[in-house]
Amino acid sequence: MLKTASTFLTFLIIFSLSSCSTSNKIAALKPEPDDASPLLYDNVASFINLPISVKIKDIENQTNTLLNGLIYEDNTIEDDDIEMKVWKLAPISISNENGKLKTVLPLKALVKYRIGTKTMGVNMYNVKEFNLNGVVTLLSDVGLTNWKLHSKTELKSLDWNESPTMTVFGKNAPVTYLINPAVKLFRSKIETKIDAAIEKSMDFKPNVLAALEKICTPFQMSEAYQSWLQVVPIEVYSTDAKLKNDTFLMDMGMKCTMETLIGQKPESKFNASKIILKPITKIPNKISATIAAVSTYAEATKIMTKNFAGQVFGSGSKKVTVQKVDIWHKNDKMVIALDLLGSVNGTIYLTGFPQYNEQTKEIYFDKLDYALDTKNKLMRTANWLAQGLILRKIQQTCRYSIVPNLEEGKKSMAAYLKNYSPMPGVFVNGKMEDIQFNSIQLTNKAIIAFIKINGVVNVSVDGFK
Question: What are the distances in angstroms from CA 268 to CA 197, 211, 263?
Fold first, then answer.
């Protein structure tokens, strides 16, 4: 009787243990990742067109602001018998005349003219004073040098509203012949002041660099994917400035790299001190942008884990769920580690080559298969899991969407390129065309998808503030 009870107890223990051991444990060897190294990849340069337009009215406004009040003064009469002060009498007007800037300057002048001689140490001088007003007309050739609109101005005419006269022997005698020589003394001063005012008022550098800094500030394209577009300028080009109707036109272009980063907002790489303006003859009017969509394995792991959430692989009593996903690079392949829970517990490892599906706009893993040691372990402990049907289902979930966030980013960029004003007087407009896939490059830390985008960007300057 005692022996029978002992046998029954042993049977219960064995049954209980077998009932509690329905899950197989797998401990496959982990394919170790390649040595981590800095994230380096080949990023193709892009060219962005930045045409600048400036109204002549803006030049006029700035010139009037900078050139005001007393514009010429000569207080020494001993050297040439003339003493003169010249004031701007009314606002300066600037217009386009046959491709040149025509400047009309109303002025008033106080002229003192000394008549007489010095005889035997005695001054025999008579000083006459004239109050005059008139209009000076100047023409300027314009060009662009070192970010500034420069001009070469020449005084074309000086028209007095009234002919200056003085009383000689009881009669009013015209003395224009005395005054006009004095004009030669201050004409170069006026020309120089006009040139200096135009150059100072039309310094493009602060405005352009401020606009470029905004363009190069990383901005979020997709909140869901935490994707950021970053533009890094290399060089800036410019053609000669040209006058057309009431506007100055200047084609500018920027050679840059463009990349899309996944994760936290990256720091801007814009450095104004390194931007150099290079003169060229012609700039294309379209963007040709090759964007590097950088997805770190850490960020890809998070999204891949979400893909597996709630999914069950298998059927009947043989089922597993994926609790966590890890991916890394090894020997030009991607390693995908799946932490399983269910009929099989443990971590299995798959390997494959990342590819791009242009129809679904996803990166997937071609020729996905179990790592050799994982396959051997599964064949011995869970052959059903090693079968191709379950592997294909797992492969369908092993997808990482990088480019859809660029599509969403196009919408964000559309708003950015619709009369966006990074600073007063500067407006950004443009449009993006279709995205075209180029290639994929693997690094030790990330998957790099190179995307080509065509489009147009215009930066207009509508009044300097």
Answer: 35, 14, 15
Distance from C-alpha of 181 to C-alpha of 174, rounded to nearest angstrom: 14
Of 207, 103, 97, nearest in space to 157 by CA:
103
Three-state secondary structure call for residue 426: strand
Query: Token pair 């170069």 is at which residue?
Result: 188
Whether this prediction's pTM lies above 0.70 is answered by no
Q: Which CATH number fits domain 24-51+203-465: 3.60.160.10, 3.40.640.10, 3.15.10.40, 1.20.1560.10?
A: 3.15.10.40
**What pLDDT, on the 0 to 100 scale, is given for residue 15?**
35
Q: Class of 57-202 per CATH?
A: alpha beta
Please report the sign of the dihedral spanned by the C-alpha atoms of residue 328, residue 330, residue 336, residue 339.
negative
Rounded Cα–Cα distance for residues 399 and 366 (Å): 10
Beta strand pairing call for 252-262 and 227-238: antiparallel
Task: Give pLDDT tens digits for 14-43.
Answer: 333 343 445 678 778 888 876 545 455 667
Q: Are strands 420-423 and 399-400 parallel, antiparallel or unpaired?
A: unpaired
